[in-house]
Write a structure and sequence with these properties.
The protein is mainly α. 52% of the residues lie in helices and 11% in strands.
Amino acid sequence: MIAALNEVLADIGSPLVVDLSRVVFMDSTGLALLINARGRVVRRGQAFAIVCPQGPIARVFEIADMVESLRVHPDRESARLAVTRTARA
């Protein structure tokens, strides 16, 4: 995941939506990686959101109280709408 995010972040010129729908395990290392990625995207003036359906991965964001700050959404459409609204603001 680190390599994929670094590749995308190197040339970020549009909002970033990270889709975790197929992820089956994530711990604090993954959470830290996403926090760092969000910071890099926001510093470049772009919007950031995460797709994460209900389940064990979503629970990681809830326990860490990061659902709002990382803009976690249950599906792609709501995440896409969130980054679109932010980009227009």
